[in-house]
């Protein structure tokens, strides 16, 4: 889970462990407090005076916006109950700009050029490419035997978009016919 720098409505989980019973400590929320160090500074009490008990010894402590305004946080929860320990939580915060991609270095993708032309078909538009793809994926298939033309038609079967001639073994015998014109 990422903690965003200088943003309200966040918090952290911690587990209370009873070392004498060797099990998670339930029902200890009234005895748990925490201190916070921001960017290595001296610790200060956390603003959340009492954690929320999630269950099975897990507790949630809220952080204020001001408490998240640092690059690194050290959260140190403690319990006043004998033999109950909680581990410190170390968080390196992120900013929303950390997740913004710089798209300026990406190569432009042109389906007509990058797909059709690289496969020996020149000057197709996006719409024409989609007509052919749609016919094969969603249209009607005609000719299912080993030999003969296999054609893929527009839904409704009125126009063959792709025709694949095959021999007795199902191998393509001639050039595939492509018709991406309007219906």
Radius of gyration: 32 Å
Q: Which second-level CATH architecture of the largest domain applies?
A: Sandwich
Our count of helices gives: 2
Dominant shape: elongated
- Could you name the ranges where pLDDT drops below 50 across 5 or more consecutive residues? none
What CATH calls the topology of the largest domain is Immunoglobulin-like
Distance between the termini: 52 Å
Structure description:
- This protein starts with 9 loop residues before the first strand and ends in a 5-residue tail after the last strand.
- A hairpin with a 4-residue loop joins strand 1 and strand 2.
- The chain folds into 2 domains: 90 residues, Immunoglobulin-like, CATH 2.60.40; 68 residues, no CATH class.
- It is built from 2 helices and 13 strands, in the order βββββββββααββββ.
- The radius of gyration is 32 Å and the shape is elongated.
- 19% of the residues are buried.
- Strands 1, 2, 5, 6 and 8 form a 5-stranded antiparallel sheet that branches. The protein has a 4-stranded antiparallel sheet with strand order 4-3-7-9, with no helix packed on it. The protein has a 4-stranded antiparallel sheet with strand order 10-11-12-13.
- It is 10% helix and 34% strand.
- The protein has 183 residues and is mainly beta.
């Amino acid at each position: 889970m990422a903690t965003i720098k200088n943003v309200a409505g966040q918090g952290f989980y911690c587990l209370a462990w009873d070392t004498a019973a060797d099990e998670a400590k339930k029902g200890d929320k009234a005895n748990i407090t925490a201190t916070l160090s921001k960017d290595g500074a001296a610790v200060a009490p956390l603003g959340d005076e009492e954690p929320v008990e999630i269950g099975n010894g897990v507790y949630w402590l809220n952080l204020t916006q001001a408490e998240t305004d640092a690059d690194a946080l050290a959260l140190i929860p403690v319990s006043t109950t004998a033999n109950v320990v909680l581990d410190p939580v170390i968080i390196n915060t992120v900013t929303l700009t950390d997740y913004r991609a710089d798209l300026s270095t990406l190569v432009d993708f042109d389906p007509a050029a990058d797909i059709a032309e690289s496969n020996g078909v020149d000057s197709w538009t996006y719409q024409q490419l989609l007509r052919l793809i749609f016919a094969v994926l969603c249209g009607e298939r005609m000719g299912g035997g080993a030999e003969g033309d296999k054609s893929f038609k527009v839904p409704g079967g009125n126009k063959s978009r792709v025709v694949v001639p095959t021999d007795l073994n199902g191998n393509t015998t001639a050039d595939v016919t492509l018709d991406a014109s309007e219906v």
